[in-house]
């Protein structure tokens, strides 16, 4: 079996590629990072180190790589032969891979009528639907029914914390032991793809919301409050009692939304929250706050990890979720100069104010009670920052 995987980064090598290789696929990574592509081609293997109390090494074999900028035709050829296509490139990169994917899928129609599943493994709701819409924007009307017949775009939720890597061997990836890959069955054509450890479900919505509004919500808040307190890593941030308690408070708020919405058992959800807090604190992993905080404009999105649960909490309970609001205010103070979105966000705030930023990026009406609460919290944090 052959899998073509776009994105040989942290999640690509540390989770999706490794699981596919362990499931018996030959994995061809497609990336634009020359060094990583060259090394994968040369070594055809790399190491995943599962970091817990002990370090367990997993050799990943039967892999190779292609550079999509310089080896376009080869990528297209591999797509025509693949049994699975996956991505882990980042939500903002999906439009950039759509053209080559569309071309590969078009050519495949002429040589291979086997159905193919395409799974975008990105931190977002409906990632594969979004990729599909970009691909469909590139093909002719006549091809669309054929694409619908042969290509199943499957939405999924991926959960494993893989920090930025720095090793003598640049291919090595240190990962946490936990992983969860939940894939929606809707849109499967023919048989379920064979992937060891993946969990196939009829309806992804509860799973993706549980993951995005717990793991990602808590992680994001720890990162923004950590950055605010000039702390370097998530592990150090979680040792700060105030941050840990703010994270827990926010997770109880997003948890209240999820429990009410999906009728879950409250104490089971509380155990899930506590397990996630322990994952953030894993002393064998060192995860920079600026990595987890990256792309604050995306993270301020209406359906993303902070505004999504905050709006739902307000709508369901008619109250301000103070923990989430503090996290959002801290996001608005994230002024890391190496992050393009942080720079753009700061420019918007300086030029037009917090209300305008929340209107533009989070689609919150300026008179929404959440906006007033976020603005007050933002002013409070800004004042404390000056006095610190
Ligand atoms: N790192 C983590 O713990 C987790 C990440 N994710 C999601 O996985 C996705 C990837 O994240 P990471 O692996 O952390 O990022 P990363 O930055 O380590 O990897 C992204 C890879 O995509 C490559 N890339 C960029 N543009 C490309 C293009 N046009 N064609 C092909 N490859 C291209 C980059 O060179 C890089 O190797 C994101 O959507 C993220 O939200 C989801 C769960 C956990
Ligand atoms: O990848 P994003 O969406 O920028 O979020 C940052 C981090 O969130 C996590 O998925 C978990 O919270 C990470 O490990 C991830 O990379």
Automatic annotation (TrEMBL):
Gene Ontology MF terms: mannitol-1-phosphate 5-dehydrogenase activity
Source domain of life: Bacteria
Keywords: NAD, Oxidoreductase
Enzyme Commission numbers on file: 1.1.1.17
Keyword Oxidoreductase: yes
Biological process (GO), any one: mannitol catabolic process
Binding site for NAD(+): 3-14
Enzyme's top EC category: oxidoreductase
Catalytic activity: D-mannitol 1-phosphate + NAD(+) = beta-D-fructose 6-phosphate + NADH + H(+)
Domain Mannitol dehydrogenase C-terminal: 203-381
GO cellular component labels: cytosol
Domain Mannitol dehydrogenase N-terminal: 2-196
UniProt cross-references to PROSITE patterns, sorted A to Z: MANNITOL_DHGENASE
Entries under HAMAP family matching the protein: Mannitol_dehydrog (MF_00196)
Family per record: Belongs to the mannitol dehydrogenase family.
PANTHER family, per database record: ALTRONATE OXIDOREDUCTASE-RELATED (PTHR30524:SF0), MANNITOL-1-PHOSPHATE 5-DEHYDROGENASE (PTHR30524)
Protein name: Mannitol-1-phosphate 5-dehydrogenase
Lineage: Bacteria, Bacillati, Bacillota, Bacilli, Bacillales
Gene that encodes it: mtlD
């Amino acid at each position: 079996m052959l899998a073509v995987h776009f994105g040989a980064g942290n999640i690509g090598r540390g989770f999706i590629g490794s699981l596919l290789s362990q499931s018996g696929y030959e994995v061809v990574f497609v990336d634009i990072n020359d060094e990583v592509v060259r090394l994968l081609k040369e070594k055809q293997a790399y190491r995943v180190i599962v970091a817990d109390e002990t370090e367990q090494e997993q050799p990943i074999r039967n892999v190779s790589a292609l550079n999509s900028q310089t080896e376009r035709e080869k990528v297209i050829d591999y797509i025509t032969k693949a049994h699975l296509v996956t991505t882990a490139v980042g939500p903002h990169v999906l439009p950039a891979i759509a053209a080559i994917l569309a071309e590969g899928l078009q050519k495949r129609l002429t040589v291979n009528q086997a159905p193919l599943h395409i799974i975008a493994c990105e931190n977002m709701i409906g990632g594969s639907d979004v990729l599909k819409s970009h691909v469909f924007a590139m093909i002719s009307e006549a091809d669309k029914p054929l694409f619908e017949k042969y290509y199943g775009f499957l939405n999924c939720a991926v959960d494993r914390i893989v920090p930025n890597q720095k090793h003598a061997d640049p291919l090595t990836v240190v990962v946490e032991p936990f992983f969860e890959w939940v894939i929606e069955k809707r849109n499967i054509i023919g048989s379920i793809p064979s992937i060891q450890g993946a969990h196939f479900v009829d309806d992804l919505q509860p799973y993706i919301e549980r993951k995005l509004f717990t793991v990602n919500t808590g992680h994001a808040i720890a990162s923004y409050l950590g950055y605010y307190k000039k702390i370097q890593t998530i592990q150090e941030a979680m040792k700060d009692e105030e941050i840990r308690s703010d994270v827990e408070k926010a997770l109880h708020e997003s948890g209240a939304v999820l429990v009410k919405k999906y009728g879950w058992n409250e104490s089971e959800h509380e155990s899930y929250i506590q397990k996630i807090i322990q994952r953030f604190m894993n002393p064998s992993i060192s995860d920079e706050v600026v990595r987890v905080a990256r792309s604050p404009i995306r993270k301020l999105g209406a359906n993303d990890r902070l505004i999504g649960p905050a709006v739902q909490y307000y709508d369901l309970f008619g109250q301000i979720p103070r923990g989430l609001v503090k996290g959002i205010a801290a996001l608005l103070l994230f002024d890391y100069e190496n992050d393009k979105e942080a720079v753009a966000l700061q420019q918007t705030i300086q030029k037009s104010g917090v209300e305008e930023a929340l209107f533009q990026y989070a689609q919150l009406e300026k008179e929404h009670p959440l906006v007033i609460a976020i603005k007050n919290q933002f002013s409070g944090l800004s004042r404390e920052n000056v006095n610190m």
